[in-house]
Design a protein that fits this description.
The protein is elongated. A 7-stranded mixed β-sheet has the order 5-2-1-6-7-9-10, with helices on both faces. A 6-stranded antiparallel beta barrel has the order 12-13-16-15-14-18. Helix 1 runs parallel beside helix 6 and helix 5 runs antiparallel to helix 7. It is an alpha/beta fold. The N and C termini lie far apart (53 Å). The longest helix is centred in the middle third of the chain and has 24 residues.
């Protein structure tokens, strides 16, 4: 079985590794290297680095024409996609004999779209999972081959949950892909009436508003927007990211106020509070939230959206 793999970030690497165990991976296709971080260092994607280390030819097309040429050149029986980051044109979907199979990080039809893990956390879902699906020209609308359920833990962030989903997705590929390509596994249609949209996350959306939102919503947002783009806001005119927090059952400060309580930095929200664990003031490294408040001499501050 000849496969071509399409993926870009770290969470796509386990699927590529799984493919090596069940098929001949003739090519990996990834997003081109882009400037990253504060120093705008240009780094290859995790998939490109992994593929090169494993001796797999890599293509990093910059436009649709180059992308189509790469898939055609691969002459694969099937294409497998995991977090590639670009829409596959309709004409390209038909190039491999068995088509394109996508590893999607949700239990479709719930959370179709770009940010399914973040949306599941923001919504307070008790569980999510991975769907192995056959791609069509719609946005995550194709028929499903298999699913794997993953429970969401109370402390999960988008980063930790994505890592577990990556492993579950790789396991689905290892178990079911060969049967699909051989014609021994039939895909089942999705129920469009149950579909929900997982829109791409914006930086503005990650600004917290504890004066208007519940402590439950604030806790979910802090976890959902970690590690990117990072939840936060303004405290007395200075930008602050909140990288870690814990919900509290104690009597809260006034909603929207952050103050010291028994040696902890506590943020009041509607109906409750959260204890800030790790924060990052603008222009500084992440630090203990209590140490940040000590640096303010324990002065209470108003936490607001910019």
């Amino acid at each position: 079985m000849r496969t071509v793999f399409l993926g870009t970030p770290e969470e796509a690497v386990p699927t590529l590794a799984a493919l090596l165990g069940i098929s001949e991976v003739v090519m990996a296709i990834s997003q081109p290297a882009r400037p990253r971080g504060r120093g705008l260092r240009v780094d290859a994607s995790p998939v490109e680095e992994a593929a090169a280390a494993w001796g797999i030819p890599v293509r990093t097309p910059t436009n649709r024409a180059e992308f189509g040429e790469a898939v055609e050149e691969a002459e694969a029986d099937v294409a497998v996609v995991a977090a590639y980051g670009r829409i596959v044109p309709g004409r390209v979907l038909a190039m491999p004999e068995a088509g394109f199979v996508n590893v999607h990080f949700s239990l479709l039809p719930r959370w179709r779209g770009a940010s399914p893990v973040t949306r599941a956390l923001l919504a307070g879902d008790a569980e999510t999972g991975v769907t192995l699906m056959v791609m069509d020209e719609g946005l995550d609308t194709g028929p499903m081959l298999a699913t794997s359920v993953v429970r969401i833990r109370p402390t999960d962030t988008t980063g930790t949950l994505t890592a577990r989903l990556a492993g579950a997705g790789a396991a689905l590929v290892a178990e079911h892909l060969a049967a699909f390509v051989a014609g021994d596994l039939t895909a089942a249609p999705q129920d469009d009436a149950l579909a929900t949209a997982a829109a791409k996350v914006s930086v503005e959306e990650a600004f917290l508003d504890p004066a208007r939102h519940s402590h439950v919503a604030i806790d979910r947002a802090i976890r959902a927007f970690h590690p990117r783009p990072g939840a936060g806001g303004m405290v007395d005119g200075t930008r602050l990211k909140v990288l870690g927090a814990v919900p509290l059952d104690t009597e809260p400060p006034v909603p929207g106020m952050v103050e010291m309580r028994d040696g902890d930095a506590v943020l009041g929200a509607v109906g409750g509070a959260v204890r800030l664990v790790t924060v990052q003031p603008e222009g500084k490294a992440p630090m203990d939230a209590a140490a940040w408040m000590h640096g303010r001499r324990g002065t209470p501050g108003r936490f607001e959206r910019p």
